[in-house]
Amino acid sequence: MNLHLESYQEELDKLTQLEAVTKKIRKLHQDYEQLCFNVSKADGTISMEELQRMTVYKFYRYKQLLIEYKKPRNKKNQDD
Fold it and tell me: Quick one: which of 77, 76, 56, 55 has its CA closest to 68?
């Protein structure tokens, strides 16, 4: 009987770990969707769907370039 309890406990532990991983994946996906939404709104010309179809590198590079483009320029740069 003790063997069955250990087996059930192992299965429960596995399910608990799986649940934790699933929860983390959902959170990462929600964060990614929020980031796509924010970039889409900041750009104004690209949709969330277009951003989501980009590769990871292209997406983050696009985000980086958008931030640099939208960054307020200081007075010295505006005079040039």
Answer: 77
Per-residue pLDDT tens digits for 55-80? 999 999 999 999 999 888 765 555 55
What is the rounded (10 degree) CA torsion for 49, 37, 26, 64?
90
How many beta carbons lie within 10 A of that of residue 6, not counting itself?
Answer: 10
Are 43 and 69 in contact by the 8 Å Cβ rule? The answer is no
CB 70 within 8 A of CB 43: no
Give the domain ranges of the chain.
Answer: 2-79
Model-level pTM? 0.68
Task: Determine the straight-line distance between the first and last CA of the chain, rounded to whole angstroms.
Answer: 82
